[in-house]
Amino acid sequence: MLDNTIMQDTIIHRWGTKPKFISFILLVFSFACVKSLALLPVILLITTIIFGLSGVPLQFLLQRLKMPACFILIMGLVMLLFTQGQVVGQLGFLTVTREGAVSALLMMGRFVCILTLMMVLFSTSTFLEVLAVMQAMGIPELLTDMLMFTYRYLNELAVMFRQMNTAMIMRGFTGQKIKALYALSYLAGTIFIRSYEQSQRIYQAMAIRGYGQKCVDKPYREASREDQVLCAMCVVAALVLGSVQFYLLYPGV
Amino acid sequence: MHIPDGMLPGSVCIAGYALTAAGTAIALNRIKKLDNPRQEIPKVSVLTAAFFVASWIHIPIPPTSVHLLLNGLLGALMGHFAFPAILIALFLQAVMFGHGGLTTLGVNQIIMGFPAVLAALLFSGLKNMAVHKKWGMPAVGLATGILGIGGSLLLFLLVLVSFIPANVDPVAEKAAIYATVIAHLPLVVIEGIFSAMVVSYLQKIKPELLELRK
């Protein structure tokens, strides 16, 4: 689940959730706008500094990068080998162009930086704090409530799914042939029915406990002077990145 | 069909968020008109989690296996709530597993959510006619399943073709598009059949989940 490394005490962990959220969102969007190779080392440096300060284990990051990295690598290879432009190398019938190399490097660099920052954000704040900040920033309460409930019951349903799957296997289900589609569709249908029936009990239990009433306490603390300084640094970095990128793309303006 | 972070230009990501915000606002407006919208939230949330888990089911297609999208089926079961439900599922997939992305959340939402809304409209329009026919509900289930994943596939290809760098070799680009479509065609058929089976099962065991009029 999320916030696995929340118990650590680093400068990023102590950073207030609201200024941290705003800073990271601005940074990732400024990273997404980077189109010049000259800025790639800059965003990698910013990301490395933030990741280093966060104390999140490198293995945790690599584990998270594993799955999406496959798709990004394939797209990177396609760009590297099939982009037209100035040829810089030949590999049999495949040609590597300068433009292809630049596109591939930029795409992979942006991907690593954005994913790292997002992982640091959600690993160094509790999910409830992040939800409260999202609500404070204008995300409708209906949406944040749905998000909270979904996150809360995801683990339970995953356990239910594993139990049902194990029960099927113990009764001789192998799931190797296409005929398994019948049993798998009934498995999915049963998960939906059980979750639907559970949800009816959930609402009644929540209503008894005051669900729907206005919550007085904010689960996150107000920003301190240190939080504001860190936020200002990130905002300035994002604005400078955006401005430099704009200048590099449109130097005459 | 999830586009990861870093692949699309920043302007496209922001445009995706703008469209997603508009779609979500329309959906939430419709939801607020219900008698007690808060009563629906636990049901929708738990069903969203159920769909999240159900998409982990691997369907064997020898020699490999695939996992289904189920956005068409989600649209059929959730109606107005389908669009925000998919947004939540995509958000959780991005932050928990790095599947998809946060900057590309808006674009991914349009790719998955818009066909789900179309599937919801199709299902609600046809279900009350189809319920009286022998193969009516499975046929509607098949149609919603195919519409969901087929629509997502088309939008995914449209986004990739429109926004990948312009100087990619056109022959290679065309070949990649054909290969992607051919590779996904069996998945479209299987998801349609799977959706038909689930709808048929729910009609027998728990018809109120499909909100069928007697």
Structure, described:
- The complex is a heterodimer of chains A (253) and B (214).
- Chain A is built from 9 helices and 2 strands; from the N terminus they run H-H-H-H-E-E-H-H-H-H-H.
- With 253 residues, chain A is mainly α.
- In chain A, strand 1 (87-91) and strand 2 form a beta hairpin.
- With 214 residues, chain B is mainly alpha-helical.
- Chain B has 7 helices and 2 strands, in the order H-H-E-E-H-H-H-H-H.
- Chain B is globular, with a radius of gyration of 18 Å.
- Chains A and B meet through helix 2, helix 4, helix 5, helix 7 and helix 8 of A and helix 1, helix 2, strand 1, helix 4 and helix 7 of B.
Task: Provide a brief overview of the structure.
The complex is a heterodimer of chains A (253) and B (214). Chain A is mainly alpha-helical and 253 residues long.
Radius of gyration of chain A: 24 Å
Low-confidence stretches of chain A: none
Task: List low-pLDDT spans of chain B.
Answer: none
Order of strands across the main sheet of chain B: 1-2
Taken as a percent bin, the fraction of beta residues of chain B is under 5%
Estimate percent helicity of chain A: over 70%
Sheet with the most strands of chain B?
A: 2 strands, antiparallel
Widest beta sheet: strand line-up of chain A:
1-2
State the end-to-end distance of chain B: 38 Å
* Gross geometry of chain B: globular
